[in-house]
Design goal:
By secondary structure, this protein is an all-alpha fold. The protein is built from 17 helices and no strands. Helix 3 packs parallel to helix 5, helix 6 packs antiparallel against helix 7 and helix 10 runs antiparallel to helix 11.
């Protein structure tokens, strides 16, 4: 409808919406085209709000494409617009994006500093979404720094603070994986079960169901692993984005390896390598190749060995565990 109107503001908003949907599908070059158009339209109609959002989205999309110069440029534009418009929310989110750039380029102290500033800014303006974003990013920062207690506490605050269900689910998914990483499989399962029962979105359900299968592999439960893989396969997950498909191939192979089914492990890991190389998902390809080398040398770890090795001592997260258990009871029994 916006294309037929004489109100450029509506057109700019529509372009942002379409760009966001394209971005969600993993088509980042296409998304950047829509966001660029939205920015141009915003300049024509004098909408600082749309220009700021378009610039912020361009910063994020270029980061995902690995174009750090363009990402930094657009986050800087968004930050400057936030300052010029006295828009504290835009300013905070632009700063959060710049923090993400620092983190992904290996400067974790700078990321922690910026995300901490975003959290303080969100508290000052009383914006729960900005606070949720800050806690969510701080969870990732703290995980990378192997400060898992802090990471889990930040993740839970993000779940509690985000106003929208979709953002809550994304934070809950990341929080669940933090529990997997520390070997607390019960808490991880509670979180993923909530995700499965709260979302109908294809990507979120596929990741959650696949993670639940992987948890069974870590437990050494072959029958439950296969049963949960059947639920994943019912979603036609191969129609997802290339990155998602690469990850699911990798973890399926890794799961079979944990269970000692080396023939299936080799088959899935080989496919993970070939598919990931074809779609330039190099990090997953390297991880799969490393596992294949271990498998062929006969030193692939068992489920019990991995679970014991990954166990991490946590403190002050009993409230998080209890909250996840209550959420699972609420949503799964509903």
């Amino acid at each position: 409808d916006a294309l037929g109107t004489d109100q450029p503001t509506l057109l700019g908003s529509a372009l942002l919406e379409v760009g966001s949907r394209v971005d969600e599908q993993g088509h980042f070059n296409g998304a950047s085209e829509f966001f660029s158009l939205a920015y141009s339209v915003a300049l024509i109609c004098g909408s600082g709000t749309i220009a700021g959002e378009a610039a912020r989205f361009l910063g994020r999309t270029h980061r995902r494409l690995g174009d750090w110069d363009q990402s930094g440029h657009w986050y800087g534009v968004a930050r400057d617009l936030g300052e010029a418009l006295d828009d504290s929310r835009l300013l905070a989110l632009a700063m959060s994006g710049l923090g993400n750039n620092h983190r992904e380029r290996g400067n974790l102290p700078a990321a922690l500093r910026l995300h901490g500033e975003v959290l303080e800014g969100g508290r000052e303006i009383g914006d729960p979404y900005v606070q949720g974003v800050a806690h969510h990013e701080l969870m990732t920062d703290e995980k990378l720094g192997e400060r898992y207690t802090h990471a889990i506490q930040h993740g839970w605050e993000a779940v509690r603070l985000y106003p929208a269900a979709r953002d809550q689910i994304e934070a809950l998914t990341d929080l669940a994986w933090a529990f997997v990483e520390v070997g607390d499989l019960s808490a991880a399962e509670d979180a993923y079960m909530v995700v499965v029962h709260r979302t109908e979105e294809f990507r979120g359900r596929a990741y959650a169901l696949d993670a639940l299968a992987y948890i069974e592999a870590l437990r050494g439960n072959s029958a439950q692993f296969e049963a949960r893989l059947e639920l994943v396969d019912a979603l036609a997950w191969r129609q997802g984005t290339p990155f998602m498909v690469s990850e699911l191939l990798f973890y399926r192979g890794k799961g079979y390896g944990l269970l000692g089914n080396l023939e299936e492990a080799e088959r899935w890991l080989e496919e993970a390598v070939s598919f990931s190389e074809e779609h330039a998902n190099h990090q997953i390809s390297f991880q799969a190749q490393d596992l294949l080398r271990s498998l062929r040398k006969g030193d692939l770890p068992t489920a019990a060995e991995v679970t014991v090795a990954d166990s991490v001592e946590l403190s002050n997260v009993d409230g998080v565990r209890a909250g996840l258990s209550l959420m699972r009871g609420e949503y799964v029994s509903a």
